[in-house]
């Protein structure tokens, strides 16, 4: 949306983001103008104990892999953690309440001005027209509920490792991209590409067991990955004389099923791998930047894949 | 519906069917009471030339395998052929008109008293509440249209041989029944059994390419016939604490997809053959008489299968 400077001070990554200095939200010219108001709201309302509890909440979220509003994670931002502590009072209460959350859970500072359809709705105290939790995906929302409940039971912090294990009898195909695109650009494109390929595979009668996007590519695990040479192609209804004539002319072996002419036609792809290789060659359905970079398939077993 | 005597006279199969002698259709006590009225109607209305044309029509129907109202064929009865000749006037006209038939084609002697939803509706001239063509299946109806059109073009009689050829890369499984059940009892039961097995295979994620019932059994040709060991089982929504607890207790490895708990469970059947063998052992979904007779699988390639 606007430029900013990126650098390092004593081993910490630093972003310097310019913004307009405003007093009221109505004066906002750019979305980052809101940030100083966020800082002001939190500093004015948070006790010292709550600052510690916020740190604990962030640590917990990091361990269960739901912390971070960037596109790679689509989880909870730092500001969201602060709001949760302010609203529920303490770390323990956040966990207790989160374990009971429902889809479209609402947390309202002030009043609701708009309708939102996100899994989690936290009305921003400095801008009541905004859902501060709009970037939280259904997945991360659900994981937070699930692990909050688990924490209440076990009373211990545990790191969640998302090791990938192939299932017996499936076929693994991994697409690797040779790119140094920043993650906030990369991940939406990986997901878009994944969704397109998934739909294309299913249109060609293959079946996906699981799929996953990760730092350097996309993984597909297939349940149905090889098919017979031919498929049955349903043609016109027998009553439709004109189209039946065309169909008979086009296909040399025609048969009747119910009241439709049918024939066998050769499949475009007999294996899921051929199907994906075809898309790689054409770069059909790939994200804008992913169209341009090197892309290759690996299908050997991958023991571990963290995201 | 009622008993009859079956025998042979000079190499011809003979059925002697007793019925009540009636003058008007309102006096009918049994469905066969109608038959003498049919004979009377045809004899009173048909010319000598039309009798020959009826023989030609029957011969044509036999060659294209749509002649016979028995359950094995579900095609055109002899009476239906006579009615078609009477209605359209000649063999040539029957063919010309049939080539233009539509779904729910109506041929009305007298008036329509009821609504029918069969593919072909021929109101019986001796009983206007009856569709004389109710036993004609959509398949045979369509085949008659198709081959009528072909005859108009080629002007020649040609026997249709329904040779069965397996497609490349599919798997063939043939169920054989050791039975001497009469065909009118056998075929509805074979179709019922076929439909049940088909649904059961699909419920277990296999895919059928083609299927066929024939004199001594059922053939399944499979497009997807082997699957991975495990499948993904979707459990309760993450919000549903009670059911989540039960789910976690029951399955040792649980993961979250969207807002649902999921796990991997072992498939009941990894191959379509195992699936069918299981049904044979239990005789689940089999036709009444087919439950009792010997049944075995053959999966070698079958070159020819006539029905």
Topology:
The structure is a homodimer of 307-residue chains.
Chain A: E1 5-9, E2 12-16, H1 34-45, H2 48-63, H3 78-88, H4 91-98, E3 105-108, E4 120-124, E5 127-131, H5 138-154, E6 171-178, H6 183-203, E7 207-214, E8 217-224, E9 230-237, H7 241-250, E10 254-257, E11 260-266, H8 272-282, E12 294-298
Parallel strand pairs in A: 3-4
Antiparallel strand pairs in A: 1-2, 4-5, 6-8, 6-12, 7-8, 9-11, 10-11
Helix pairs in contact in A: 2-3, 3-4
Features:
3 domains; Alpha-Beta Plaits; homodimer; 12 strands; 3-stranded mixed beta sheet; 8 helices; alpha+beta; 4-stranded antiparallel beta sheet; 307 residues; Poly(a)-polymerase, middle domain
CATH superfamily of the largest domain in chain A: CCA tRNA nucleotidyltransferase, domain 2
Strand order of the largest sheet of chain A: 7-8-6-12
Beta-strand residue percentage of chain A: 15-25%
Radius of gyration of chain A, taken over Cα atoms and rounded to an integer in Å: 26 Å
CATH topology of the largest domain in chain A: Poly(a)-polymerase, middle domain
Total of helices of chain A = 8
> What would CATH call the architecture of the largest domain in chain A?
Orthogonal Bundle
What is the end-to-end distance of chain A?
A: 27 Å
Largest interface: A-B, 43 and 43 residues
Based on Cα principal axes, name the global outline of chain A.
elongated
CATH C-level name of the largest domain in chain A: Mainly Alpha
Number of strands of chain A: 12
* Total number of domains of chain A: 3
Q: Please give the largest β-sheet of chain A.
A: 4 strands, antiparallel
Helix-strand topology string of chain A: EEHHHHEEEHEHEEEHEEHE
State the oligomer. Answer: homodimer
- Unreliable spans of chain A are none
